[in-house]
Specification:
With 413 residues, the protein is an alpha+beta fold. 50% of the residues lie in helices and 7% in strands.
């Protein structure tokens, strides 16, 4: 059974944002509308507990291949239409170049596995690789704005850790709310988090179970996830300045997948027509091995996640992003999906690092700290943007919310 870790944190963010809004609203009708937003968000968060329940999800029939092709054709038409109508002047040149590159793709060869078939323009696709220098810079701007150069103090602390493993304690500091290539906490707070991360590594380095490659290969997947990955993520995400987050290692069904299944049942009841099977939908997960299917599941789930958020509110474009975390052997990958001003999803492979199991791999320490602090920085911004968006949705609910463009996958593909 594949081990999974919740990486979106949307339910906790929504609940905290709604509770914050309720403290500021006195009108009864407005309070009820805010509570309705929370109930809508929670539809997709009921976990499927136990292996039997998970296996039970695999009894569906394969979707009709014609339905999959229809979804792909609809998505490509919509993508072409959006690229032909940029919402901002800055995107005109970029959209024209992307539309030109899209014509070079044989759309009949696209499958549900391809990001373009799901209306995603990924930074590693030919659509982006074939852009000119200026257009590529424009496309990557949201990604570049999320990247920050490690402060000299953090770099020095990592070097110090390799030698003496000392810890320091510092107080909290305020934060900002948008991505602008800056950390949302001051150096002293980043140093505190760095110390927590390094203290986890100290435990790993002192654990004989991970001393050699032979010993590590003998450990179960659960030991690896529980003793290394989860503590590192918690060390980076604990004590956020704008509230805590909820992280779980429990098996659970894909959030938006469950919503779609519920919608399918409702459509059946309303139309009295046979239900069309929707196929498998992805989970966000941490996996022991990184294969093609695993990376596909990750961007499919982030697409579902941002579509689910869009039903309740409209966070700032090119800023709010759904984060996907994937562990593959010794590699830890941080990816993020945002929507631009025209609603087109952009998927970025943000940061990658390797976990330093022993002191002999101490050169991996700084990249790992950078990845975990970047995850923390994005989470701080996401929480603020989501709270603001939910408060705005109280008076200006989003209209014409579109379902996720994620193409249905064959059941056993």
């Amino acid at each position: 059974m594949v081990s999974k870790i919740e990486a979106l944190f949307l339910e906790d963010l929504a609940e905290r944002a709604v509770n914050s809004s309720l403290t500021k609203i006195t009108d009864f009708d407005r309070r009820m509308r805010v509570l309705e937003v929370l109930s809508q968000m929670k539809v997709g968060y009921k976990s499927v507990v136990g292996l039997d329940a998970v296996k039970g999800l695999k009894t569906e029939q394969e979707p009709n291949l014609d339905r999959t092709r229809e979804e792909i054709e609809r998505n490509t038409r919509t993508l072409k239409s959006k690229l032909g109508s940029p919402m901002t002047d800055a995107d005109i040149s970029l959209y024209n170049a992307l539309k030109t590159n899209l014509r070079s793709i044989n759309l009949s060869e696209l499958s549900w596995r391809d990001p373009e078939a799901n209306m995603i323009i990924s930074d590693d696709s030919t659509l982006v690789k074939n852009l000119g220098t200026r257009q590529k810079q424009l496309f990557l701007e949201p990604c570049e704005n999320m990247k920050c150069v490690l402060p000299t103090s953090v770099i020095s602390r990592c070097d110090e850790f390799v030698n003496n493993l000392n810890n320091i304690e510092v107080p909290d500091v305020p934060m900002n709310i948008v991505h602008n290539k800056e950390w949302k906490e001051k150096d002293v707070k980043l140093l505190e988090r760095t110390n927590r991360i390094l203290s986890v590594l100290e435990g790993v380095w002192n654990n004989p179970a991970f001393a050699t490659s032979e010993m590590r290969s003998s450990q179960s997947e659960g030991t690896y996830i529980t003793d290394i990955v989860v503590p590192l993520l918690r060390a980076g995400l604990d004590d956020l300045p704008n509230g805590s987050i909820c992280m779980s290692t429990a098996e659970r069904q894909s959030i938006a997948s469950k919503v779609r299944k519920s919608l399918g049942v409702n459509e059946e009841k309303s139309s009295h027509s046979p239900r069309v099977p929707i196929g498998k939908k992805p989970d966000v997960m941490v996996m022991e091995k990184c294969g093609e299917d695993d990376s596909i599941k990750l961007w499919r789930e982030t697409l579902d996640g941002i579509s689910l958020v869009g039903i309740a509110c409209r966070p700032t474009s090119n800023q709010f992003g759904i984060v996907g975390i994937q562990v593959a052997g010794e590699d830890l990958c941080l990816n993020v999906l945002v929507r631009d001003a025209n609603g087109i999803p952009r998927y970025f492979h943000l940061v990658q690092a390797q976990i330093p199991f022993t002191k002999s791999t101490s050169w991996r320490v700084k990249p790992l700290v950078h990845l975990l602090l970047t995850l923390r920085n994005i989470t701080i911004v996401n929480k603020s943007l989501l709270m603001q968006a939910l408060e705005q949705a109280n008076t200006r609910p989003p209209r014409n919310a579109n379902p996720s463009p994620t193409v249905s996958s064959p059941l056993y593909d």
